[in-house]
C-alpha cells in the first residue's frame, strides 16, 4: 500500500528534481519569451509544467504562451479519444486566456515541424514540455531538440507523476514491491500542495487567438466516426473535479467507502473512481487526487490506502516500465523467463483460434469474453478485472504470444477511452507476458504465465448477471445512436 503521511500544505515552488534540461541554449532567457508545449497534462490547475513556464517567464521578465499540437495520426486515436480531448482543450483555452491572460496557440500536423517553426517566429528563448515515456513522443522531442536554434533552451517537466519517473528510480523495476519503498520514501518531498498560479508579469503582444473549435472537432468526429464518442464521461477540468469531489456522485465524497472491497466486481462499476479518462488526458492531476484522498483517510483508511496504491504506485510503475523498457508493447519487453515459457508453448494446440476480425466483433464461443469486448467497444471502458481475463483469453485463442500482444494492444488503443497509455500497455503485458508478476504452475499455451478461466470468474462474481448487464448497456447505446441518426437525417431533410 502507498504510505501517505500528512502531506505538506505549504505552497512550494517547483521541486528541482521535477525538471530536466533536454537542451541548454546559448541565449539568456531575458532575450525571448517562454513557450509551454502542452500535450500530456492538459489542465490549468495543479500543473507543474505551466507553473514552471510562468515562473521562468517572470524571472526573465518575458511573456509566456501555451502551444498545443494536434498530431495528424497518434496511435490510431479516433472520434472517441480526440473528441473528448479537444472538447476539454476548448474549455482550457478559455480558462487560460481569461484567468491568466496567457495566449493559447493551436497547431495541426507534426509537432517536430510546427513547434520549432513557432519558436522561431516568436523568438522564444525557452521551451517547457510535458513528460511522456512513450517512444513516439520521446522521438519527437529528440527531433525538436535537433531542429530548434542553438539559442533555445528546452526543459522537460514531469507534471504527470507525483514522484518524477527519473527520480523515483534510475532503472527498470521488476514489480510494485521493488518500487514501492522508493516512491514512499520520496512522497514527503514531492506530495506537497501547489503554489497559487498568478497571471504572468509581462503580457504577450497578440492575446486573442481565434481557434474554430467547432470545425476542428467536427473534422475529427467525421474522420474517426468508426469509434464514436462516449456519453457517460463529460470532458474537461471542471467535470474531472466533479467526478473526484462532487456533492452528487463524487468518488471521494460519495463512493469511496466500498472501493477496497468492490473494485474487482465487474457488476459494480460505480465502485471504481471513474477518473482514468481524466488522468490519461491530464485533465486532472494525480497529485491533486492524492492530496484530496488523504483528507478522507480517517473515515475510510483501507479504501484510501487501496486507492493510493493504484493511483501512485501502480500508475508510476507503469511509467517506469515504458520509460526504461523500449519494447514496452511487444514480446521483446517481457522478462527472459516469460519469453522462454511463452515460446516453449507457442505451438501448443489451442481449443479455439480466432482472427482479429472475429475478436473485434466479439464472435467467440465464450459469452463472458464477448460481453467484455462489447463493453469496451460500446462503453469505451472495460472493467479492470475483465480486462485481465479479456487479454489472457486473447493469448489462449491466437496463433502465438506475439500476435496476442499485437491484437490486445490494437483493440485496447482503438476502443478504450484511456488507451495509448502506459497503464494500458502494462495491463496487456502483465496479462500476456507476466510483467510485474511471477511465474506460476506450468500449463499448456500459458506456460508459467498466470492463468484465468471462466470457472474462476464464476467463483468471484455473478457472470450471468454481468453478461445480462452488458446486453442492456449495448441495447441502450444502440437505441440512442439510432435516435441520434434519425434526428440528424430529419434535420438534413428539413434543410
Q: What report would you give on this structure?
A:
- The structure is a single chain.
- This protein has 495 residues and is an alpha/beta fold.
- The chain folds into 3 domains: 16-199 and 211-222, Rossmann fold (3-Layer(aba) Sandwich); 238-324, Serine Threonine Protein Phosphatase 5, Tetratricopeptide repeat; 333-467, DNA Cyclobutane Dipyrimidine Photolyase, subunit A, domain 3, CATH 1.10.579.10.
- The chain contains 21 helices and 6 strands.
- The chain has helices at 48-60, 79-100, 111-122, 135-147, 165-168, 176-190, 213-223, 237-245, 251-255, 259-262, 276-280, 286-294, 301-324, 336-344, 356-360, 367-379, 384-397, 401-415, 422-433, 454-460, 463-494; strands at residues 19-23, 34-38, 64-70, 104-108, 126-130, 153-157.
- Strands 1-6-5-2-3-4 form a 6-stranded mixed beta sheet, sandwiched between helices.
- Strand 2 (34-38), helix 1 and strand 3 (64-70) form a beta-alpha-beta unit.
- Helix 3 packs parallel to helix 4.
- Pfam families: DNA_photolyase.
- Its EC number is 4.1.99.3.
- InterPro entries: Crypto/Photolyase_FAD-like_sf (IPR036134), Crypto/Photolyase_N_sf (IPR036155), DNA_photolyase_2 (IPR008148), DNA_photolyase_2_CS (IPR032673), DNA_photolyase_N (IPR006050), Photolyase_Class-2 (IPR052219), Rossmann-like_a/b/a_fold (IPR014729).
- It comes from Theobroma cacao.
- Keywords: DNA damage, DNA repair, DNA-binding, FAD, Flavoprotein, Lyase.
Indicate the topology.
Elements: E1 19-23, E2 34-38, H1 48-60, E3 64-70, H2 79-100, E4 104-108, H3 111-122, E5 126-130, H4 135-147, E6 153-157, H5 165-168, H6 176-190, H7 213-223, H8 237-245, H9 251-255, H10 259-262, H11 276-280, H12 286-294, H13 301-324, H14 336-344, H15 356-360, H16 367-379, H17 384-397, H18 401-415, H19 422-433, H20 454-460, H21 463-494
Parallel strand pairs: 2-3, 2-5, 3-4, 5-6
Antiparallel strand pairs: 1-6
Helix pairs in contact: 2-7, 3-4, 6-13, 12-13, 13-19, 16-21, 17-18, 17-19, 18-19
Amino acid at each position: 500500500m502507498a504510505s501517505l503521511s500528512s502531506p505538506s500544505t505549504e505552497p512550494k515552488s517547483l521541486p528541482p528534481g521535477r525538471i530536466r534540461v533536454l537542451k541548454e541554449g546559448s541565449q539568456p532567457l531575458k532575450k525571448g519569451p517562454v513557450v509551454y508545449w502542452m500535450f500530456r497534462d492538459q489542465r490549468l490547475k495543479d500543473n507543474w509544467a505551466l507553473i514552471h513556464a510562468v515562473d521562468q517567464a517572470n524571472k526573465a521578465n518575458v511573456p509566456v504562451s501555451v502551444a498545443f499540437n494536434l498530431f495528424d495520426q497518434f496511435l490510431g486515436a479516433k472520434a472517441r479519444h480526440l473528441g473528448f480531448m479537444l472538447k476539454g482543450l476548448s474549455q482550457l483555452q478559455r480558462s487560460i486566456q481569461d484567468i491568466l491572460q496567457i495566449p493559447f496557440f493551436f497547431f495541426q500536423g507534426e509537432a517536430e515541424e510546427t513547434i520549432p517553426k513557432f519558436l522561431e517566429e516568436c523568438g522564444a528563448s525557452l521551451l517547457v514540455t510535458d513528460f511522456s515515456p512513450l517512444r513516439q513522443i520521446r522521438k519527437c522531442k529528440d527531433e525538436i531538440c535537433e531542429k530548434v536554434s542553438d539559442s533555445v533552451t528546452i526543459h522537460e517537466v514531469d507534471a504527470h507523476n507525483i514522484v518524477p519517473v527519473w527520480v523515483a528510480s534510475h532503472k527498470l523495476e521488476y514489480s510494485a514491491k521493488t518500487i514501492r519503498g522508493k516512491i514512499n520514501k520520496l512522497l514527503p518531498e514531492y506530495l506537497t500542495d501547489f503554489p497559487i498560479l498568478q497571471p504572468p508579469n509581462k503580457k504577450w503582444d497578440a492575446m486573442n487567438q481565434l481557434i474554430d473549435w467547432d470545425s476542428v472537432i467536427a473534422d475529427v468526429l467525421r474522420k474517426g466516426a468508426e469509434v464514436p464518442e462516449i456519453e457517460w464521461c463529460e470532458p474537461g477540468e471542471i467535470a474531472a473535479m466533479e467526478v473526484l469531489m462532487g456533492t452528487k456522485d463524487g468518488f471521494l465524497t460519495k463512493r469511496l467507502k466500498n472501493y477496497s472491497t468492490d473494485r474487482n466486481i465487474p457488476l459494480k462499476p460505480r465502485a471504481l473512481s471513474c477518473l482514468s479518462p481524466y488522468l490519461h488526458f491530464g485533465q486532472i492531476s494525480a497529485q491533486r487526487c492524492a492530496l484530496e484522498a488523504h483528507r478522507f483517510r480517517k473515515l475510510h483508511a483501507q479504501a484510501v490506502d487501496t486507492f493510493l496504491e493504484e493511483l501512485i504506485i501502480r500508475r508510476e510503475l507503469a511509467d517506469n516500465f515504458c520509460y526504461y523498457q523500449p519494447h514496452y508493447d511487444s514480446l521483446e519487453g517481457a522478462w527472459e523467463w516469460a519469453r522462454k515459457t511463452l515460446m516453449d508453448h507457442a505451438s501448443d494446440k489451442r481449443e479455439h483460434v480466432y482472427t482479429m476480425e472475429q475478436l473485434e466483433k466479439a464472435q467467440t464461443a465464450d459469452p463472458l469474453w464477448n460481453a467484455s469486448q462489447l463493453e469496451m467497444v460500446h462503453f469505451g471502458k472495460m472493467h479492470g478485472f475483465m480486462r485481465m481475463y479479456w487479454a489472457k483469453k486473447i493469448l489462449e485463442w491466437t496463433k502465438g504470444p506475439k500476435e496476442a500482444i499485437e491484437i490486445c494492444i490494437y483493440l485496447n488503443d482503438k476502443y478504450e477511452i484511456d488507451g495509448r497509455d502506459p497503464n494500458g500497455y502494462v495491463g496487456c503485458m502483465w496479462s500476456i507476458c507476466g510483467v510485474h508478476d511471477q511465474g506460476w504452475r506450468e500449463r499448456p499455451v500459458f506456460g508459467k504465465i498466470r492463468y484465468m478461466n471462466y470457472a474462476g470468474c464464476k467463483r468471484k462474481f455473478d457472470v450471468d448477471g454481468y453478461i445480462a448487464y452488458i446486453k442492456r448497456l449495448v441495447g441502450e447505446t444502440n437505441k440512442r445512436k439510432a435516435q441520434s441518426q434519425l434526428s440528424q437525417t430529419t434535420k438534413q431533410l428539413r434543410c
